[in-house]
Amino acid sequence: MKLIGYHGTNIEDAYNICKNGIDKNKIINTWPNDLGNGFYAYIDVDGSPFENKAVNNAIEYAKTFRKKDKIGIIKLTLDIDPDNSLILLENETIKSVSELFDAVRLAAYNKIPKKFKREETYVKAGFAKRNNRDGFLFEYIIDHGLIKEPQVIIEDTHTDFNNGTEIAIRDLSVIKAKKLLILGKDHVIKESDE
Question: What pLDDT does 131 receive?
Fold first, then answer.
């Protein structure tokens, strides 16, 4: 299944990723993001209830969380196997994963390192405020073999700036191409020749 994803960051990091690739060590977080560990991007999905386009969500993400003068967007060409992916866009799949989460929640939360409750970095980054532990639940059910390791996890997400469909890319081999997009004046996006 072919997809186009958009990853928003600052221009320096975007250029580095396009030139040197994604550092797999950096996508394994000590505090997993909402969909667990992975390289995150926004995607457009047919029939999506969201008005905002994926590229616009990537821009808003970068402006909100990367806070650098110049924003870089990486356009990703992806080729995923739906049978080896966790796609949480249909009620039946969402219900199955929710039931798994309910069954393991206490055990998974007990595995969260205590340092996160007191380490200032995580409090300032907003993890303590949001108290979102879904990433730990995803990592727990994967690590314990309750679901097989997916290439990607896809889910509609809700944020402070825009709602959209996010993809956490766990298997970087699904990324077939990367293209640097630069946000210029008046929010005009232009493709980099590099």
Answer: 60
